[in-house]
Amino acid sequence: MSLLPVEEAQARLLAMASPLPACPAPLAEAAGRYLAEPLAAARDQPWTDLSAMDGYAVRHADMPGPWRVVGEMAAGAVPGRAPLGEGEAMRIFTGAPLPPGADTVVVQEDVHVDGTLVRLTGEGPGGRGRHVRPRASDFAQGATLLPAGIRLGPAQVALAALAGYGAMPLGGRPRISILSTGSELVPPGAPCSPGRLPASNGVMLRAMAEGAGATVAGETLVPDDLGLLTQALRHAAEADEAHVIVTSGGASVGDHDLVRPALEAAGGSIDFWRIAMRPGKPLIVGRIGGAILLGLPGNPVSAMVTGALFLLPLVRHLAGAAEPLPRTRDAMLAVDMPAVGGRTDFVRATVAGETVTPIAFQDSAAMHAAARANALIVRPADSPASRAGEKAPILDWPALGLAG
Ligand SMILES: Nc1nc2c(c(=O)[nH]1)N[C@H]1C(S)=C(S)[C@@H](COP(=O)(O)OP(=O)(O)OC[C@H]3O[C@@H](n4cnc5c(N)ncnc54)[C@H](O)[C@@H]3O)O[C@H]1N2
Ligand code: MOO
C-alpha cells in the first residue's frame, strides 16, 4: 500500500466534514472561536468629533487666543446647538464631543487660566484639528470590520463591542473524544511499576484541541484488547457524540496495533491509512457513526506532529476557520541538512529571528528534545541535501497552534 502525500491526506481529511452550524453567542464566549459571518459596524466610531485630551476646545481661526471659557463638556455629554463664538473656548475632557464650531483642542498644560480667561503659555496646539478624533475616523457604520472565518482574539472582541454588538454569530465548538491505547499506559502521576509508562498523549492532545476551541467530551485509557477498544470507539461515537474521535497508539502493523480492526468491528470504516511523512507514517483516518476517526501513532512526538498537522486543522475546519491549515514561512538553515527520502520530514527545530536550527535528537519518542522545539522544518519528500544559509519552509509553533 503506497503512502499518501501529506497535502493530499490533509485535503481528503478536511473534505470529509462540513463546518458545524453557526449560532449567535455572547462576546464573553467569543475569544478563541471563529466568526461565522462578516461583521459590519452598527455605528460610527467615534460617533462625533471627540476631544483626545483634557483642555479647551477652540476655533483654530482664533489662534493664538486668548479665549473666554463659556462652558464645560465631559465624556458622555451631548453638545448643544449653539456654536462657539469668536474668542470663545469650551472646557473639555478626553472623550467629550466638541461643541459646534470648535475644531481644535488646546491641552491644559499649555495654558494659563485666570478666572474664565485662558491664555496660551507655550506654542499652542499647532494645526487645525489637533487633539481631535474626527467622527468615524476609526470606522463608519456599515463598514465591514472583520471577515468571516477569522479567529477572534481579545482585540476582535473589543472591536465587536465598539461596533455595537453584544453577541456575534460564531462557528460551532467541535466535541472530541480522546482514546489513548496501550496496555502499558498508566494515568499521569499514577505509580509507574516496571513495564508501565505514563500516558502523555492524552493530556497533550487535550491541550492542543482545547487551545483550538474544541471541547473534550471524553478522555480514556484503553488497553490493547480488541473487545475493549471496539467498545470504547462505539462509546465515543454514541455516548460522547464526538465529532472527532482521536486515538493514539495501535496505528502501526504490530500484533497489538488494534485501531484498524477495532474500527471495523465497531461498524466504522477506514478512508485512508499511512502518510508519506516522518514522523507520523501510521496515521489512520476513518469514520464511525457520525464521527471522524483520527488514529494517531503512539510515539509522543509522532502524536504531537500529526496532532498539529491533522487534528488541529480538522478542529479549525469544523469550528468555521477560513484557513484551517497552518502556513509555512521561510527561514535560513543554520546547518547543512541531508537529502530526504520518500517521506516529507518534519524536523523539530528552534527558530530565532530568521534562522532555524534542527534539534540534534530527532527520535519520535523523545519528548524532552521535542519540548525544546518551537518550529518544524518542512523538508519535502525526495528533496536533495540543503546547505547552511539556504532558505527552507518552516511551520512555527504559533502557526501550528502549539504555542503555549
Ligand atoms: N515493523 C514496523 N514497526 C513499526 C512501524 C512500521 O512501519 N513497521 N512504524 C513505526 C512508526 S513510524 C511508529 S510512529 C510507531 C507507532 O506505532 P503505533 O501507533 O502502533 O504506536 P504504539 O506501538 O502503540 O506505541 C509506540 C510507542 O509510543 C508509546 N505510547 C503509546 N501511547 C502513548 C501515550 N498515550 N503516551 C505516551 N507514550 C505512548 C508506546 O509505549 C510505544 O513506546 O510504530 C513503529 N513501528
Ligand atoms: O512515523 Mo513514526 O512516527 O516515524 O516514528
TrEMBL record:
Instruction: Report the top EC class in one word.
Output: transferase
EC number(s) reported in the record: 2.10.1.1
Q: Required cofactors, per record?
A: Mg(2+)
Q: Where is the MoaB/Mog domain?
A: 177-317
Associated pathway? Cofactor biosynthesis; molybdopterin biosynthesis
Q: Which UniProt keywords apply?
A: Magnesium, Metal-binding, Molybdenum, Molybdenum cofactor biosynthesis, Transferase
**Catalytically driven reaction(s):** adenylyl-molybdopterin + molybdate = Mo-molybdopterin + AMP + H(+)
Q: Please name the GO terms that the record assigns under molecular function.
A: molybdopterin molybdotransferase activity
The protein's matches in Pfam families, at most eight in alphabetical order, are given as:
MoCF_biosynth, MoeA_C, MoeA_N
PROSITE patterns tied to this protein: MOCF_BIOSYNTHESIS_2
Please name the NCBIfam families in this protein's record.
Answer: Glp_gephyrin (NF045515), molyb_syn (TIGR00177)
Q: Which PANTHER family match?
A: GEPHYRIN, MOLYBDOPTERIN BIOSYNTHESIS PROTEIN
Its protein name is Molybdopterin molybdenumtransferase
Species the sequence originates in? Sphingobium lignivorans
Phylogenetic lineage: Bacteria, Pseudomonadati, Pseudomonadota, Alphaproteobacteria, Sphingomonadales
